[in-house]
Amino acid sequence: MATAAFIVVGLAAAGAFASWIVGAVFYVKTLQAISNDPQQRGLMSRAIFSWMFTVGRLKGDASIHASTVNKALVAFLACVIVAVAAISIATNLARISH
After folding, report:
1. What is the pLDDT of residues 54-81, one digit of tens each?
2. Which of 40, 88, 80, 38 is closest to 62 using CA atoms?
3. CB–CB of 69/26 below 8 Å?
4. If residue 46 lies in a helix (H) or strand (E), which one and from where to where?
5. Which of 17, 56, 62, 84 sits a CA distance of 20 to 30 A from 45?
């Protein structure tokens, strides 16, 4: 049973890594879309330093990319939570079985 929990840890860590990469790629795309739009250039520093307060003001491609960044962020946090819980279960199961 501890082996199954360690497998879940590995899968959750892989999911966290993948969602982090997706979030980073779409964050760069969001910043590029902001810099390409003359009406939104003032939001560039806000997007870098206070992401959560800027997302609602974005329009067009920047808004689409930003929603993907937010989804990747949620997926990353969910994977980290699952990985931590699975590590806890795996260590407890490994300790009990000995």
Report:
1. 888 889 988 999 999 999 999 999 999 9
2. 40
3. yes
4. helix 44-49
5. 17
Phi, psi of 73 (to 5 degrees): -65, -45
The Cα–Cα gap between 78 and 59 comes to: 27
* Residue 61, both tokens: 């491609």
Rounded to 10 degrees, the C-alpha dihedral 10/16/22/26 comes to -170
pTM given for the model? 0.84
Residue 15 and residue 9: Cα distance in Å, rounded?
10
Whether 19 contacts 75, CB under 8 Å: yes
Residue 6 has pLDDT above 80, yes or no: yes
At residue 98 the predicted structure's pLDDT band, cuts being 50, 70 and 90, is low
Which has the closest alpha carbon to 52: 80, 35, 74? 74
Spatial distance between the Cα atoms of 62 and 66, rounded to a whole number of angstroms: 6
Given the structure tokens 């590995």, which residue do they identify? 10
Dig out the tokens for 63 from the structure: 């808004």
